[in-house]
Input
Amino acid sequence: MKSGSIYSGIRNKQISKILLGLVVLITILFFTLPLLSLLLRITPDEFIAAILKPEVQSAIYLSLLTAAASTVVIVLIGTPLAYLNARVSYRGRDFVETLLDLPIVLPPSVAGLALLVLFGRRGLIGAYLNDVGIAIIFTTFAVVLAQVFVAGPLYIRQAKTAFAMVDQVYESASRTLGASPLITFVKVTIPLAWTGLVSGVILAFARAIGEFGATIMVAGNLPGKTQTMPLAIYGLMQSDLTASIALSLVLISISCIILITIRLLAGRSA
Output
């Protein structure tokens, strides 16, 4: 009886391991096969030929340009706010943080519609801008605007966490030695929070370069003007599937580089 119970226990463990292995394998295949199918659908020669097409190069250039510009804007406006929320406990801070996090969970179409209603020709702000001859909707600036709106909260959250992890003893010591708050922030706080801040920058850039829903609503899909890589993939899908796949592989490559970089930074921080 005892040996039978032991045999039964070993057998149950083996069955559990097999079932667990199958679940893991199926899960991995589910998430990797669609991406692998893109890679197998196109040859290297077709990929190079597609990348060299003017409309594809234009989409790549515009995506990199607008994502870089929006990331710079996000860092400039988000860093002070993230530091404030990490260091100062003011009334209504939780409400402010909730508002800042809202674009993360909003459907992209809702974000785009909100921006359109605000900055459109008859919008709350757009109407006044239109009176003085300033147009935002369906311009490259609108692309940057949409990217800042959807990607900014990711950086602010990450930056706040990075600042909160900095031991305030170092900041106090700097101020005790006569450094101003600004000098302390630049020479003490930022270097200590640098790894987390860089991770936030990378996350914001990744979110910006992959933005689709809000961008197409406020900027349209104008080649050479507002057509970023995600929009070009959508536009070329019916007319030039090879070019659409090539752009998808470019975005996948960028995403892989970003994920690897974040993991390296996380390991370094740890």
